[in-house]
């Protein structure tokens, strides 16, 4: 069974269960336990950071049941908190894995670009009060496209090993009024990769990096060559892609 959920990550410490902090996985497992009387084996599609949000997050669960999917969605939502909801579920092959069967993801980073903060966006977008030139940022973002070694755009710790190459298929900066969004899709992402890409684009906006400096930063393969890690509050997992599975319909995805 593959569940698709969405959640406000403001009060969660990422996906994975932690000993002294509330995580999305723990809350979802508790709801499963209430519906089925047990907590079955489940796998999440991504290791989201503390404070990161998701318009679409996928969870594979191995369980035998006779509840139709439409009723299962309603049953799960009965036991989930107001900041989390199941939007869809479907049957998938037994060997399906939410993370390892995934062929790509798309993230959106939101920047509220106005001198005055919006209290209703606190925790949901980065407030950046200096004027951003989205055309310059769009120019810089194009250099992320293609297959590159993204070592410079990764926070190195025990979770990242092996090949640091990723293929970016979409990298766009757009403005809608005072909201500037950076949308990036790839076949996979490293730890903090999108947040570091965003921080680097902001360095471009500040004139500290030229738009065409991205290739040299990639070539350096050194975290210190790139910009800072942008705050988690503006980051959203927007789409999750699987071969041979039709995407879920979420009209209010950004």
Write up this protein.
The mean pLDDT is 93. Helix content is 20%, strand content 28%. The radius of gyration is 19 Å and the shape is globular. A hairpin with a 2-residue loop joins strand 8 and strand 9. It has helices at 24-36, 69-79, 134-141, 193-205, 214-220, and strands at residues 2-7, 42-44, 53-61, 84-90, 102-112, 126-127, 146-149, 165-176, 179-186, 235-242. It folds into 2 domains: 2-100, 2-Layer Sandwich (Alpha-Beta Plaits); 103-238, Alpha-Beta Plaits, CATH 3.30.70.660. The chain is built from 5 helices and 10 strands, in the order E-H-E-E-H-E-E-E-H-E-E-E-H-H-E. Strands 1, 2, 3, 4, 5, 6, 7, 8, 9 and 10 form a 10-stranded mixed beta sheet that branches.
Give the DSSP E fraction (strand runs of 2 or more residues): 25-35%
Using the coordinates shown, work out and report the CATH topology of the largest domain: Alpha-Beta Plaits
**Stretches where pLDDT falls below 50 for ≥5 residues?**
none
Total number of domains: 2
Architecture (CATH level 2) name of the largest domain: 2-Layer Sandwich
What value does the average pLDDT take? 93
Number of strands: 10
Shape: globular
Total DSSP helices: 5
What order do the SSEs take from the amino end to the carboxyl end, as H and E? Answer: EHEEHEEEHEEEHHE
Tell me the major beta sheet. Answer: 10 strands, mixed
CATH top level class name of the largest domain: Alpha Beta
Distance between the termini: 26 Å
CATH homology group of the largest domain: Pseudouridine synthase I, catalytic domain, C-terminal subdomain
Radius of gyration, in Å, reads 19 Å
- Given helix and strand content, the structural type is alpha+beta
User: What is the helix content?
Assistant: 10-25%
């Amino acid at each position: 069974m593959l569940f698709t959920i969405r959640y406000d990550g403001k009060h969660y410490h990422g996906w994975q269960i932690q000993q002294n902090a509330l995580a999305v996985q723990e809350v979802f497992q508790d709801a499963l336990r209430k519906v089925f009387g047990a907590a079955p084996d489940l796998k999440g599609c991504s290791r989201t950071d503390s404070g990161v949000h998701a318009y679409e997050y996928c969870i594979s669960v191995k369980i035998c049941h006779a509840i139709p999917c439409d009723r299962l969605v309603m049953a799960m939502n009965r036991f989930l908190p107001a900041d989390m909801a199941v939007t869809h579920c479907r049957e998938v092959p037994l060997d399906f894995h939410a993370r390892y069967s995934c062929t790509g993801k798309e993230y959106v980073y939101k920047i509220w670009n106005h001198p005055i903060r919006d209290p209703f966006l606190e925790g949901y977008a980065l407030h950046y009060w200096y004027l951003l030139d989205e055309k310059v940022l769009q120019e810089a973002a194009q250099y992320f496209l293609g297959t590159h070694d993204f070592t410079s755009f990764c926070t190195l710790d025990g979770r990242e090993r092996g090949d640091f190459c990723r293929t970016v298929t979409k990298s766009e900066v757009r403005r809608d009024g005072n909201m500037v969004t950076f949308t990036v899709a790839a076949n996979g992402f490293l730890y903090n990769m999108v947040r570091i890409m965003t921080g680097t684009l902001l360095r471009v906006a500040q004139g500290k990096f030229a738009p065409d400096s991205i290739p040299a930063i990639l070539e350096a393969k050194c975290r210190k060559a790139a910009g800072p890690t942008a705050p988690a509050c503006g980051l959203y997992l927007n789409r999750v892609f699987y071969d041979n599975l039709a995407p879920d319909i979420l009209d209010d995805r950004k």
